[in-house]
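Can't attach files on this board, so I'm pasting raw text. These are the components:
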Amino acid sequence: LQKRYAEELSKPAKTLDERRIHLYLNAGLLSSLASEIAEGADGVGLYRTEIPFMLQTRFPSEAEQVEVYRQVLDAALGRPVVMRTLDVGGDKPLSYLPIIEENPFLGWRGVRLTLDHPELFLVQLRAMLNASGEGKQLHILLPMVCCLDEIDQAIVYLEQAYLEVKQDVHPNLKRPQIGIMLEVPALLFQLEEVAKRVDFISVGSNDLTQYLLAVDRNNPRVSTLYDSYHPGILRALTQARLACKEYQLPISVCGELAGEPMGVLLLVAMGYTQLSMNQGSLAKINYLIRRVSYQDLSELLAQALSLANGAEVRELLTLYLREKG
Ligand code: PEP
Ligand code: MG
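---
Top answer:
Structure tokens for the assembled complex are below.
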């Protein structure tokens, strides 16, 4: 089985009608990253920097962060790495930064927190830039953005960090690409303005689902309502893709949906060509993509969008996958 997986991964993920889908890894731990990348990912589509922070008992120093980020960039073998700035708060606590809130998912999380603490934000940005040095493909991603002002502010800090690292450490440092997570629904309606500010966006379908449906992603009482196959969510994802095409803004998906066979059928049909997933999904998704055609999937998507609820969509997709073997 191992051998078969390795064979699958060595082939580029292309549909039967030659549409190349780039598959990236979601990562947060370093342990096996190098071998995972070498096994056939096109890069790291989401590096969750909060994971190394959560493993510590205090904020890691700039030097410590440089070390971790350098190892990630080295493991990527020159392929692109999308590093997300600290995304704590909500469901991701830091023991050394207790946050007590009645409604943490609507509270102080992601870029809201780092913009309130420029000293933390600047250290992290400098560490990323320092680690990337010259020649690495570093992309920086901002989590939980809800307003254009947050992007503008973050870009000011990034420019400051860039100039400092360029002056002090790497004279030939290039500016990294900057992107935001699409997780807050309001931004679905401001993509034209977003496109003027950033180089790419990445759909966080986990949080986007939670906020579009008003369902806490970790509350077991409402877990049956938490459904990324809800036709309303699928329409939002379709519209996001269409808007990004119009505004020439590269878009990828890094939520769990991008690593699920049923989700991939729909995302590919919507026109997404960049998907980032956990290592365990990579071979399976590669295998699937090479057995479907974009044209056929368009019909499947049209059918899915016309259904009444997520259960019906999943039933349709399950049948389709079964037919495909
Ligand atoms: C998401 O929200 O879909 C996402 C990828 O971010 P996280 O799961 O880390 O919140
Ligand atoms: Mg998220």
